[in-house]
Each structure stands twice: as structure tokens, then as C-alpha cells.
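Q: Fold this one first, please.
A: Sequence and structure below.
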Amino acid sequence: MPPRDRQWADPFPVEHEGRTHIFLEQQIGHGNGTLGVIELYPDLSCSGFTPIMEKEYHLSFPNIFRGGKSAASWYMVPESHENSTIDLYHSVEFPYTWEHEATLIGGVRAVDTVVFYHNSKWWLFTSLDTETTPLNANLSVFYSDVFPSTDWKAHPQNPVVSGLSNSRMAGAIFRDRGSGALIRPAQNCLKDYGKETNLNEIVELSPSGYRERIIKTISPEKSLHAVCTHTINISEHFMLRDIKTRRSRFIRGEAHTPPPPRPLALPVMEERQ
């Protein structure tokens, strides 16, 4: 849990060289979100928050992935919609030092962008703010044959998903090792921002077609006083989610802290170039 004067959101776990790092957004009061990292230790205790990126505009959703010319290279695409860019950073000294690599797409207000490799192409999933497509009610897809790229082709079905209930990304796309299915987490914002998280199986993803189906809905746990859950991400051994709680600071005169969620390991297969 974060200190009482701030909130943490959008956790992305990365397991690297025997250590587990959690990249996330930190927001203090109504200030801009900044990005940082927490180390998760083997006994499930955590280090403090170390800042890694701060701008004059809001940052969140630090999508971390490997790719490019070297499979060992770490990249990050954070949300930077207030800057009207989708920016790519590469790791200079993992996990703390990052440098700007390229602006993948400029002149757009986009949120919660995910980049991944599948079937010999690089794919970019994002939600765009336009006159006809509000941020929480659309999903657009772009693709490229190379990475990094500044020439992304728009999918002919864009927006491939519309509506508040299942459009905006809720984490990185991953493969389920049991079924081999490609899974897209999405936010249900129909009743509230990030009220629930849907897991969608991508049935078709090609330059000409896109289809998906909801296979599971994750609701906030009442036992944790949670009212929203809007991010889910996985690494080799861990699944991380964030929850928003509304509760009294004190119960029967004593400080009350809800119990932590039970650690859950999920089998995952990463597809890399």
C-alpha cells in the first residue's frame, strides 16, 4: 500500500536477472503522475518507491517489454496523452535509467498504449481521443513490419472495439500457457472508470481483420473494500493488479488495514522476435 498522501496505479512486473521489479505510476494529490519502480523481494516484501521518470505533463501506464534489434533490450511506452505523443524509451541502466528513443506516433491524444510482437509484425494497441471517439470508449490498432518504427499503419477496422464496457486497455497483452490464447485485458468503464477488468481472447489479429471475445471478468473484492480494479499484468511467476478502495480510516477506534491479496502465480508464454 502507498503512503497515505499518494496513490499508486498501473503496476507492470518485470523479472530480470533473478530480481522482480514493479514499474508503476505515482500521483501525489492532484499533481501529475510520475513513474517509478519498486523491487519485490522473494519473501513478498517490497522496497521503497524509486522515481525513474518525471515530466511537465502526466505520465502513467509504463508498458515495459523486450524487443528491437536485441531481444535483451528493454523498452517502455508510458502514457503521455497530455503531450500529444506516443513515446518510446529504452533502458540505459535497468531498471532506473531510461532515454527517449523515438516518438512512435505524434499529434495524437492516446492512453494506455501496448506494443507487442505477433505473427512477424509489431502491433500497437491504444485508445484515441477524437471528436467522435472518447478515450474510454474505443480501441485502435496499428501495425509495423519493423521496430522501432515511426511509420505505423492503421488497421482498416479502427476503432476495432467501441463502447465504454470493453475498450480501454487494462494491461499488456499476454499469452496463456495453458490454452495458447492471446489475451487482451480491457477496462469496463460503463459504471465507473476502471470498474472491472475483462480478459478478452483475441480470436483474429491480422492486417485485415480483428475479432475478440470476453472469457473472464475480474471484479473488485468486497473483502478488500475495493470498488474498482483497472490494471492486470503478469510476469513469469506473478500476477499484479491494482484496486481502488473507499473505506473509513478507523473501525472501532483502531486503524484498519485490509488484508493483502493472496499471491497468485500464472503460467505465461512470451512471444518475441
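Q: Good. Now the second chain.
A: Here it is, same layout.
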Amino acid sequence: MPARAPKEIAQVAAATGAKKTRRTWDKVLVSAFLAGAYIAFGGLVAIVVSSGLDPETWGTLPTLFTGATFTLGLVLVLVAGSDLATGNMSLVPLGAMRGKIDFGDVAKNLTLVLIGNLVGAMFVAFFLAVETGVIGDSGATGTGALTYERLASIAEGKALDETAWQTFLRAVGCNWLVCLAVWMSLAATTVSGKILAIFFPIMAFVAMGFDHVIANMFFLPAAIFAGVDIGWDDAGLNWLLAGAGNLVGAVVFVSTSYWYLFLKDQPEDDEEQTEQPVEPAERG
């Protein structure tokens, strides 16, 4: 089956966004918990792979390794099927723009998904990152010390070193790229095609140091649990700024742009005739 054309992607994206709001709240929360955990898995493996790489020797290559391995998270989300708030920030509003749902549905879905994502990410941060010893603490030796230092560097950079404006703008750029990854994955009709569509945008946003609110729901709590000197108030402010920027990046630069290009002047009846069934792997 050939890849979908951009106009077809827009049609499927609007239908997918609308369908996400028609499930019971408990299924949305379970799906969102899984997505938060999957993104945390991506963050955890990224820390492990990039630990111990001295920038004086490796330059900026550790950020490339971090980005390449972090792509695991969105691959799991889109191929296995779950609800990630940053992806829903483009798909669900697009469904509302097409008149399939209202903006109350959008607010309810994003709220439930953010809660589920937070719980899933923090579950992995505490039980599978820190309690397992994969992430060490300030007194750790060997690989535990390396992973602790790498996590501390990432978390302190996000929570303490970036200004509020920088965090917001990095979040805009992040979710522009994340939503393009989700968008392009809808073009693919094979698992390999979806993985290829996901890889480059996700690798790019991580390598550039952009801020993804769900990833930060893993990095910052994991750092706090491991004893890094940042506070929950620092984490909360980062999530607020990153979430706002992610929403702008998704709605303005993806949903609204492609709605204007491909859906604005198209009658909904015509869309329903050309719309293709939404595959389970297209959830994101």
C-alpha cells in the first residue's frame, strides 16, 4: 500500500484526533500512563548510552547519541499504541477545527492525558531508574556515578540554567518537530516506514536541547529522586513553561498550518468519502 499524500494525512489526523475523545476516561488514563512510561524508557536509555562521554573528547556527539536512542520512546508510543499529550496537542485540536468535536472535548482529553503521562513517567523514574540503581546517586561509583552525573547535567540544565523565555521557545521548537514526526508516521503504512518517519525529527529535537514536557516529567523527578539539588518548584515551573510552548508548537505550526493548507476549503462530506480507516499504530 503506497504512503499517504499530505492531504490524506490531514484527513486521517483529524479523524484520529476526534476518535481519541470518544473513549472512556479510564481507558484514556491507562493509555496515557503507558505513553508516559514509554517516553521515560526512551529518556532512561538515552542517559545510559550517553553517560561518561566527556565533551572535551567527544564534543557535541553525546547529544546525537542521546537523541538517537531517545527515539525509542515515540516509536513505542506510535507503534504499540498509546496516548501522548504532545502528539494529542496537534491531533485533537485538528479534530475540533474540522467540527468533529468541540473544544471542551479537547481540554478534557489533554488534561486526562497529561495526568496519565505524568504518572507513567514518574513511575519509571522512581521504580525503574532510581530504585533499580540504573541511575546512581551522589555517592555512587562505577556506572552508577556516570549515569547520575549525566542525569544531573540534563536536569540542572533544564530546571536551573534555561531562562523562562528559553524554555518556552525550546518547547515550541520541540513539539513542532514531535508533531511532524507523528504527522509523517500517519503517511506510512508499514512499521518500518513509521519508525523511519519518527527517527529524524525526534533525534533532532533532543540533539538541539529542546524541551519536551513529558520527557521532563521523567528527567526532573528522576533527578530529584536521585538527590540532585533541584526542587519540585523548579520542576513545576519547567513543566508549565514547556507545556505551554509544546501546545503552541503543536497547534500553531502543525494543526492550524495543515488545516489551512488541506482542510479549510474542503467540504467535510468529501473528506468522509476519502478518509481511510485509522490503524491502531497511528495512535499518538
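Q: Anything worth noting on the second one?
A: The chain is about 75% helix and 0% strand.
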